[in-house]
Amino acid sequence: MASASKQVTPSCCSSHDASPPIPREAAAPPSNAVVSASTTGIPIMVRAQSRHPLESLCPAEISVAVATVRAAGATPEVRDGMRFAEVVLLEPDKHVVALADAYFFPPFQPSLLPRTKGGHMIPSKLPPRRARLVVYNKMSNETSTWIVELSEVHAATRGGHHRGKVISSQNIHDVQPSMDAVEYAECEAVVKDFPPFRESMKKRGIEDMDLVMVDAWCVGYHSEADAPSKRLAKPLIFCRTESDCPMENGYARPVEGIYILVDMQNMVVIEFEDRKLVPLPPADPLRNYTSAETRGGVDRSDLKPLKIVQAEGPSFRVDGYFVEWQKWNFRVGFTPKEGLVVYSIAYDDGSRGRRPVAHRLSFVEMVVPYGDPNDPHYRKNAFDAGEDGLGKNAHSLRKGCDCSGYVKYFDAHFTNFTGGVETIENCVCLHEEDHGLLWKHQDWRTGFAEVRRSRRLTVSFLCTVANYEYGFFWHFYQDGKIEAEVKLTGILSLGAVQPGEVRKYGTVIAPGLYAPVHQHFFVARMDMAVDCKPGEAYNQVVEVDVKVEDPGENNVHSNAFYAEERLLRTELEAMRDCNAVSARHWIVRNTRTVNRTGQLTGYKLVPGSNCLPLAGSEAKFLRRAAFLKHNLWVTQYSPDEMFPGGEFPNQNPRVGEGLATWVQKNRSLEETDIVLWYVFGITHVPRLEDWPVMPVEHIGFKLMPHGFFNCSPAVDVPPSACESKAKEDDVKDNGLMAKL
Question: Which sequence positions are flagged as catalytic?
Answer without folding.
Answer: 384, 468
